[in-house]
Specification:
The strands form 2 sheets. Strands 3-2-4-1-5 form a 5-stranded parallel sheet, with helices on both faces. A 5-stranded mixed sheet has the order 6-7-10-8-9, sandwiched between helices. The chain is globular. Strand 6, helix 6 and strand 7 form a beta-alpha-beta unit. The protein contains 7 helices and 10 strands. The protein folds into 2 domains: 130 residues, Tetrapyrrole methylase, N-terminal domain (Cobalt-precorrin-4 Transmethylase, domain 1); 98 residues, Tetrapyrrole methylase, C-terminal domain (Methyltransferase, Cobalt-precorrin-4 Transmethylase, Domain 2, 2-Layer Sandwich). With 243 residues, the chain is an alpha/beta fold.
């Protein structure tokens, strides 16, 4: 029987190319096909991180999102459109794997931490050998550039999505020793309001595009909620433990 290719999910980190792991670079350079998720008309952050490591003979396979964050008019459904897209992307990747070509699917941050790669993994890992290379996730890149320890001693960490309904976000934040809030964007004003109501605003740190060349650290009360980008997060660290 012909050998099938190996599917590699490669975490490329939050933006700084020097945060690529040695294993990620080794497998990336060895892959005949490099696939990457990208918005229409864009090169993509993940591709920008690894581009300098690629050779001319390696096939680039952009997986172009049909929609990203734009609002859709009924009866269009984001969930249905994006599910169909991942089905199609998995089929494209599987053709190379069936032909015996390894495919490296690069993913910003970590493949299994809000990473797009996981949707291909769900569809393909039962049929092909799949190897995942962890990457530095945006949450840890954010705490590093902020210079903020996240959790002390026996504290627990909550990783929350800004998409949560306001009451649920308030409940989970109230119960957390420390928290990271992701997926801000259009949800920023809601998140800022909840932090204020809980008396946590003074502990919150905001960063955009952590570790990237255009990184910004902005005081919470100076953030423009209409301009908060997708690549932003809030860190609410645990109360400092006096050792």
């Amino acid at each position: 029987m012909n050998r099938k290719g190996v599917l590699h999910g490669i975490g490329v980190g939050p933006g700084d190319p020097e945060l690529l792991t040695l294993k990620a670079v080794r497998l990336l350079k060895a892959a005949p096909v490099v696939a990457f998720f990208v918005a229409r008309g864009k090169k993509g952050n993940a591709f920008g991180i690894v581009e300098a490591h690629l050779e001319a003979q390696q096939e680039r396979m952009p997986l172009v999102y049909p929609v990203t964050t734009e609002a859709l008019e009924p009866p269009l459904s984001y969930e249905a459109i994006i599910a169909d897209f991942y089905d199609g992307a998995a089929e494209m990747v599987s053709r190379h794997l069936d032909a015996g070509r390894d495919v490296a699917v690069i993913c910003e941050g970590d493949p299994f931490f809000y990473g797009s790669y996981m949707y291909l993994h769900d569809r393909l890992a039962a049929r092909y050998e799949a190897q995942v290379v962890p990457g530095v996730c945006s949450m840890l890149g954010g705490t590093a550039v902020l210079g903020v320890p996240l959790v002390y001693r026996n504290q627990s960490l909550a990783v929350l999505s800004g998409v949560l309904p306001e009451d649920e976000l308030r409940r989970r934040l109230a119960d957390a020793d420390a928290a990271v809030i992701m997926k801000l964007g259009r949800n920023f004003e809601k998140v800022r309001r909840v932090l204020g109501e809980l008396g946590l605003a003074h502990r919150a740190h905001y960063v955009e595009r952590a570790t990237m060349s255009n990184q910004r650290i902005v005081p919470l009360d100076e953030v423009d909620p209409m301009a908060s980008p997708y690549f932003s997060l809030l860190v609410v660290p645990g109360v400092k433990w006096q050792s």
